[in-house]
Amino acid sequence: AQSVTQPDIHITVSEGASLELRCNYSYGATPYLFWYVQSPGQGLQLLLKYFSGDTLVQGIKGFEAEFKRSQSSFNLRKPSVHWSDAAEYFCAVEGGAQKLVFGQGTRLTINP
Amino acid sequence: DAGITQSPRHKVTETGTPVTLRCHQTENHRYMYWYRQDPGHGLRLIHYSYGVKDTDKGEVSDGYSVSRSKTEDFLLTLESATSSQTSVYFCATGTGVNTEAFFGQGTRLTVV
Q: What per-residue confidence (pLDDT) applies to A41?
């Protein structure tokens, strides 16, 4: 069965610093991969997605992610974080039949 | 925003009572999903629908039932609420293209 692991439950970075959130997936074929962001008390918003083609995908709010098949990874990056990026981030993989399987989430805290 | 409205947004109920959560969408999306979000578990799929009257179980379906009599409405029923069903419930919709899902704002349910 498909699965997603986000190894970091909580990450703290300083404002202006770079960010990398890790995501590892288990999937037999070429996966559809997603990153979602959830602000406190809100629903999930799609940041970016990978279906095929260029392994470096650009998303909203200055985020990007790189698909690495050899490492079964889809890590999310941002060169310089802003205080408004504080949120919870979820990686997800298509689990068959148009369903998503989510990781446990990574909570991001920004220090001023 | 895919025009998804969840109701109620907050509910407190007693153990053993039935509870129904409603999801209404205005985008005419074919697929609809119910997820629950719990700390340390990310989002887990309860049930989903791939058309009117067409539903299937997800990962954590025990104690839950669903119905979809119209394209725009997807109801989640807790047949006899238990404390373990205290959670935040999210409805999502999808077009069926590349599994991308759009999320509602969530319903916080507390079972006392």
A: 85
Residue range B77-91: mean pLDDT, rounded = 97
Instruction: Identify the residue among B10, B99, B108 best suited for mutation to test binding to A, counting A beta carbons within 10 A and taking the highest.
Output: B99
AA letter at A68: K
Alpha-carbon A11 to chain mean position: 13
> What are the backbone angles phi and psi of residue B37, rounded to the nearest 5°?
-120, 125
Find the mean pLDDT for residues A73-89. 97
Query: If DSSP codes are grouped into helix, strand and coil, which group holds residue A84?
Result: helix
The answer to whether the Cβ–Cβ distance between A99 and B99 falls below 8 Å is: yes
Nearest Cβ partner for B98 among A9, A44, A51: A51
Q: Does B15 touch chain A if contact means CB atoms closer than 8 Å?
A: no
Distance CA B24, CA B82 (A): 25
User: Prior bond to B8 cis, omega within 30?
Assistant: yes
Tell me which chain B residue has its CA closest to the CA of residue A9. Answer: B40
Locus of tokens 């404002």: A15
State the CB neighbour count (10 A cutoff) for residue A73: 17
Tokens in use for A48?
A: 């970016």
Go through B46-73 and write b for each residue having 16 or more CB atoms within 10 A of its CB, e for each that does not: bbbbbeeeebeebbbbeebbbebeeebe
Share of chain B above pLDDT 90, in %: 89
Strands B10-13 and B107-111, bridge-based pairing: parallel
pLDDT at A7 over 90: yes
Summary mean pLDDT of chain A: 93
